[in-house]
C-alpha cells in the first residue's frame, strides 16, 4: 500500500509535478478548417442559460457547443474509416488513459520549415539515444506549435496552397502504427501535417494509426515542460457514447 502514499507525499513535497497539457477552451480556440467540399466542425462556444437573473436567480450555467475534435482532444479509432470496426471514445479502456509518454523534439526543425515531416530515421535516431518507444504509451511529436495557439491564423498557417503545419511522413505513419505504442500526440490542430490532404493515402497518421486501433491526442500545450522520457500521461476524454473523439483534459505527472 506504500505506492500511492509515496506518490501523495511526492506530490505534496513537489517531487512530482502535475503538468497541464491542455489548451484553454473558448470561442477563440483554433479549430481545423478542411477545404471544400468537406464539412467543418463547430468551434467551441458557451450558450448562456442563466446568470443570477430572472432565468435562474441564484445560479449561473451554460450549455456548451463544440465539435468532438475541438481544442485539446482525443481521436478514437472509429474517427477514421480504417478504424470503423474499432473502439468509439466511450469504449477506450480506462487503464489505457494512464500511461508512459516520451517526447521527440523537432521544434527547431519545424521553426525553420513549417512543413517538416517526421521520418522513420528521426525516430530511430531518437531511440538510439533515449531507448525504445514506450510499450502501451504515448509518443509526443514536439513542434513548438503551441506558441501559436492564441492566434488561429498563425496556428493554421494557411496560404493559397493550403495549411502549412508539421506532421509525419506516410512511411513514418505506416511504421508508427506497427509499434507497440498507445498513440501519437501533437501540438498542432491535427495529428497529420497541414498538407496531408494531398498525401497518398490522405491523412496517413489518422489512416494508419487509427486503423491499427491506436489513438491520437491533438493540440497539446506545455509540451516544452515535459522531460524526454519518464513522465506519465493522463488523458481524460468524455465517454461520449458512439463518439469519434472528445475534448480532453490531458495531464502529466513529472518527477522533479
Ligand atoms: C477530420 C478530417 C481530417 C482531419 C481531422 C478531422 C483531424 O485532424 C482531427 O481532429 O481528427 S486531419
Ligand atoms: Mn481529431
Describe the structure.
This protein has one domain: Glucose Oxidase, domain 1 (3-Layer(bba) Sandwich). Helices cover 19% and strands 29% of the residues. The longest helix has 11 residues, at 2-12. The model has no long low-confidence stretch (mean pLDDT 98). The chain has 6 helices and 14 strands. It is of the alpha/beta class and 256 residues long. Oxo(2-sulfanylphenyl)acetic acid binds next to loops.
In summary, what is this structure?
With 256 residues, the chain is of the alpha/beta class. The chain has helices at 2-12, 107-112, 120-130, 152-156, 170-176, 204-211; strands at 16-20, 45-53, 56-65, 73-75, 98-105, 117-118, 138-142, 158-159, 162-163, 167-168, 183-186, 215-218, 231-237, 245-255. Helices cover 19% and strands 29% of the residues.
What Rg, in angstroms, do the CA atoms define?
19 Å
Count of helical stretches: 6
* Tertiary shape: globular
Q: Based on helices, strands and strand pairing, what is the structural class?
A: alpha/beta
Low-confidence segments: none
User: What is the CATH topology classification name?
Assistant: Glucose Oxidase, domain 1
**Beta-strand residue fraction:** 25-35%
Keywords:
single chain, 256 residues, alpha/beta, Glucose Oxidase, domain 1, seven-stranded mixed barrel, 6 helices, binds oxo(2-sulfanylphenyl)acetic acid, binds manganese (II) ion
Task: Note the topology.
Elements: H1 2-12, E1 16-20, E2 45-53, E3 56-65, E4 73-75, E5 98-105, H2 107-112, E6 117-118, H3 120-130, E7 138-142, H4 152-156, E8 158-159, E9 162-163, E10 167-168, H5 170-176, E11 183-186, H6 204-211, E12 215-218, E13 231-237, E14 245-255
Helix pairs in contact: 5-6
The structure holds oxo(2-sulfanylphenyl)acetic acid and manganese (II) ion (MN).
